[in-house]
Amino acid sequence: MPRQMKLIAFMQAQNCSNYPASWRYPSSGTDWHDSRYYQRIGRILEDGKFHLAFFDDRLAIPDRFGDDFALTIEHGIRAAKLDPMLTALTMGLATERLGIGCTYSTTYYEPFHVARSFATMDLLLGGRAAWNVVTSVNNSEAANFGRSEHLAHDLRYDRADEFMEVVHGHWDSWEDDAIRNDKAEGLFADPAKVHRLDHDGRFFKSRGPFTVPRSNQGHPVIIQAGQSGRGKTFASRWGELIFVIYPNLAVGQASYREMKDHLAKTGRETTAIAPAVYPIVGETQAMAEDKRALIESLAKPADAMALLSEVLNYDLSAKDPDEAFSAEELEAISGMQNIRDRAVKMSGKPNPTVAELVRASGRGTIRELPVFVGTATSVADQMEEWFTTACDGFVVSATHSPGAYEDFVRLVVPELQRRGIFQRDYAGSTLRENLGLARPERGSWRRAG
């Protein structure tokens, strides 16, 4: 069988998709706070044989710009956020084969809590759960958890490494055959096959034993999106599905080869790498281009400034758009440093201006990601070109919801299936089976990476 493309839907449990202007699109749903909204999208994705839908999250609304939330609330810039775990479970219970993922931070939660939440969801969904592991990015998130400031970039990843060790250690507590359910003998489970963790480390102390047995896929699939130098090290150690952002195909090809080579050296060569993209599809090229023009017209300058201040953990309100950053100011950016580094590279200057940083990031616009525009044939051509040289699949982002997913499933999916590069049905009942990932043995995480 030819190599098969992985398709993942990039979801938000909030008033807009990851394109902040999506709520302004004429046909975008306004019932984002209703369980039926997410159940409908889940069924659309499952009809399209998507492998996975995962929910992004931040632990604060974007209020770093001017240290004020008024701009965010007024313009609806990711202003309302539901709990992603509960929202994801709502979608999962309305589907049977679609993988269901959720973002949880290693910076402000506790490992035992996260391990139990995801292990529970994995059991309830029959082995379809995934965890998108993130380190939180800004001071607003810190303030919501009673902290005076955010952890430094590399320190967040040091904490995250130990966090993952504790979570995996708890997930390993129950051996696969521990439960006996022997009513005649009165034996529920074999005590010799349930183990305490007894972790005592730099950041965490957690005893166990864990309260949730292993699921039929072993444990939830790990999604990771680290793209800074330290983030790549973390992703290569833990990531089973790596979510990336490539500005264009040439960069994608080089980055894909580099990451695959690195993963092979660490024993993680089966890991799938999937860049985020915006597909805009129409029955004709002209219809698709008109749709793109409407979508782009919805973005406002406020969107970019609010979201860029959020992810950089840096208030841009005090600087003129044409004012260059000093070396000290660039060093003070403690959020997503890969955006800062991209601006330096694209501008060709060691000290880019605010305007150059905005342009390089594409934040608040659909230019933040590659955009595939056209008919079903044209969009499939673009996806196939990337798939053959730069990725293992795609994180499909919605320019508006649920319409963008409806169009993609109705028009593009059949064309990808006709070409034999995307599945016509699910390979199995668990997410690991459908992604082609092996069921992890207890303790296998200690040997990988």
UniProtKB/TrEMBL annotation:
<dbReference type="InterPro" id="IPR051260">
    <property type="entry name" value="Diverse_substr_monoxygenases"/>
</dbReference>
<feature type="domain" description="Luciferase-like">
    <location>
        <begin position="63"/>
        <end position="388"/>
    </location>
</feature>
<keyword id="KW-0560">Oxidoreductase</keyword>
<keyword id="KW-0503">Monooxygenase</keyword>
<comment type="similarity">
    <text>Belongs to the NtaA/SnaA/DszA monooxygenase family.</text>
</comment>
<dbReference type="InterPro" id="IPR016215">
    <property type="entry name" value="NTA_MOA"/>
</dbReference>
<dbReference type="Pfam" id="PF00296">
    <property type="entry name" value="Bac_luciferase"/>
</dbReference>
<feature type="binding site">
    <location>
        <position position="157"/>
    </location>
    <ligand>
        <name>FMN</name>
    </ligand>
</feature>
<keyword id="KW-0285">Flavoprotein</keyword>
<feature type="binding site">
    <location>
        <position position="153"/>
    </location>
    <ligand>
        <name>FMN</name>
    </ligand>
</feature>
<dbReference type="InterPro" id="IPR036661">
    <property type="entry name" value="Luciferase-like_sf"/>
</dbReference>
<feature type="binding site">
    <location>
        <position position="57"/>
    </location>
    <ligand>
        <name>FMN</name>
    </ligand>
</feature>
<keyword id="KW-0288">FMN</keyword>
<feature type="binding site">
    <location>
        <position position="228"/>
    </location>
    <ligand>
        <name>FMN</name>
    </ligand>
</feature>
<dbReference type="GO" id="GO:0004497">
    <property type="term" value="F:monooxygenase activity"/>
</dbReference>
<dbReference type="InterPro" id="IPR011251">
    <property type="entry name" value="Luciferase-like_dom"/>
</dbReference>
<feature type="binding site">
    <location>
        <position position="103"/>
    </location>
    <ligand>
        <name>FMN</name>
    </ligand>
</feature>
<protein>
    <submittedName>
        <fullName>FMN-dependent oxidoreductase (Nitrilotriacetate monooxygenase family)</fullName>
    </submittedName>
</protein>
<dbReference type="GO" id="GO:0016705">
    <property type="term" value="F:oxidoreductase activity, acting on paired donors, with incorporation or reduction of molecular oxygen"/>
</dbReference>
